[in-house]
Amino acid sequence: MTPAAPGGETADTGGRPAGWRSLVLLGAVSAVAFVILVGLGVWQLERRAWKEALIARVEAGLAAYPVAAPGPDAWPSLDLRDVEYAPVEAVGVFDHAREVHVVHTLVEPKGPAGGIGYQIFTPFRSDAGWWVYVNRGFVPRDNENPATRSAGQIEGETEVAGLLRAPSTRSWFMPGDDIAGNAWFSRDPALFAAAAGLPPDDVAPYIIDARFDPHLPGGLPQGGETIVSFPNNHLSYALTWLGLAAVLAGVLLAFVVKRVRG
Fold first, then answer.
1. Is the pTM of this model over 0.90?
2. How many CB atoms lie within 10 A of CB 187?
3. 250: containing domain
């Protein structure tokens, strides 16, 4: 005789209530997992479409003639995701006394200098009166002191051209920004401006990564080192998630068939 479960239900197997309850519970959990896996796969396909559009826009922009860097009137509505890597230009004067040194290791330099060093971010006062931080380029560690590269400290009104870049804060695993020692890991004009005492409302919310200037005396800072590389592995990720969803569905179906027949 089959033992009875509490409440008078049989507790062994087959199509009896206790067995069906466990089967329904397993199906519900599997359905949730299936929806999550499919959702992740669809999300990766959407990310792939976004990445391909970004690559196409950036590649087209790199070859385009620079336009005027957005001024204060455009900042409130500026979506940096839509304009990042756009070629821009501005006319004004560098404030070299307030340059910021961002710790950087240049692994694959396009110019002669590379290795451990700094990116030099210098506030640039446009001829319209507002400020923008310009990443003038890379200098080796031995050239951190501006006196070692004085020939490249451009004085007077000049024009800068480069790629518009969004700010970025330091990664969680990096040391904190050493403001007193001028050794930063953040690339954030708002933080730079606060440390320099510049009026925050007059500082652009973006950075200009300067192009390489073959005529810069001394060659430092070495511009044109912006990394424009967008790994696009989203299709393989999507196939992985969708494949896992298919495997889950197959395993569940096989289990249900075996359970019903058994």
1. no
2. 22
3. 13-79+230-262
